[in-house]
Amino acid sequence: MKSDPSTPSAWPYPHWIAHRGAGRLAPENTLAAFRLGAQHGYRMAECDAKLSADGVLFLLHDDTLERTTNGQGLGGALPWAALSQLDAGGWHSRAYAGEPPATLEAVARHCLANGHHLNIEIKPSPGQAHATGEAVGREATRLWAGAAGAPPLLSSFEPEALAGARASAPQLPRGLLLETLCDGWLDTALGLGCVAVICDHEHWTAEAMARTRQAGLRTLAYTVNEPADVARLEAWGIDGIITDRVDLFAPD
Question: What is the pLDDT of residue 31?
Fold first, then answer.
């Protein structure tokens, strides 16, 4: 029988999660980063997904292209044919010059072929939250149809994006991302049918984690790069740690 990701006692995901593929060791959100994270033993990674102008889900963290590619302007304003021609690796180092952007499908197929897990952060362009959430839900349902193991964990800072994902794929587990434990955070997560709360590690407290667990939700933290922070979170019973330091922390 498959485990139900919504049941706390049956949480199916690894404890350690590689941020954007391999943290800072490779160009984020590229297949090269996912391969490197896997080489360091990570069996789960996080990525950022947004819609191209013609409806292709591709990986990009920022709204704009300048920081992580040789393109310019809003990433979501270009069709995939144009995005696919960009250099998404040269900004990082010469070793990765020419590395192309990745589609969500390409990363999903990499994870499925290797038996790895994926946390897909829904990262919509401005005004596209619900549509992007719906698209991620539909695409994840298609890509993981019939696959063994746990489905991807969908997350977002934007409640409207999570609402879109729930509308198109209510069966997929969702996590609410938080920069701080703002007023009503737990009620928001519960109202969206989330299975987890994923907060900046600096703002988790032992009390907040206990409240989250009492509500039946799991707790994850980002982006945890220092051993002292890991020790603090572990002492409080954190369920998942998202890190850039795939070279420092050996996953379970």
Answer: 98
Tell me the three state secondary structure of residue 80. Answer: helix
CA distances from residue 242 to 23, 87, 183, 201, 211 in whole angstroms, order as listed: 9, 26, 24, 9, 21
Compute φ and ψ for 56, nearest 5 degrees: -90, 130
Taking each helix axis from N to C terminus, what angle separates 104-114 and 31-39, rounded to the nearest 10 degrees? 20
Q: What is the largest CA-CA distance in the chain?
A: 49
Radius of gyration of the chain (CA): 17
Please compute the mean of the pLDDT values over residues 146-154 and round it to a whole number: 96
Task: For residue range 85-113, list pLDDT tens digits in order.
Answer: 999 999 999 999 999 999 999 999 999 99
**How much is the pLDDT for 10?**
81
Q: Sign of the C-alpha dihedral, residues 173, 2, 49, 30?
A: positive
Q: Specify whether the CB–CB gap between 200 and 178 falls below 8 A.
A: yes
Q: What is the DSSP letter of 202?
A: G
Could you list the active site residues?
19, 61
Q: Report the chain's mean pLDDT, rounded to a whole number.
A: 96
DSSP states of 132-182: HHHHHHHHHHHHTTT-SSPPPEEEES-HHHHHHHHHH-TTS-EEEEESS--
Find all residues with CB under 8 Å of 132, minimum gap 6, and list them.
49, 50, 51, 122, 123, 124, 125, 161, 164
Contact 165, 174 (CB under 8 A): yes
Q: Has residue 2 got a pLDDT over 90?
A: no
Under a CB-based contact definition with an 8 Å cutoff, are residues 160 and 129 in contact?
A: yes
- Confidence class for position 9, pLDDT limits 50, 70, 90: low
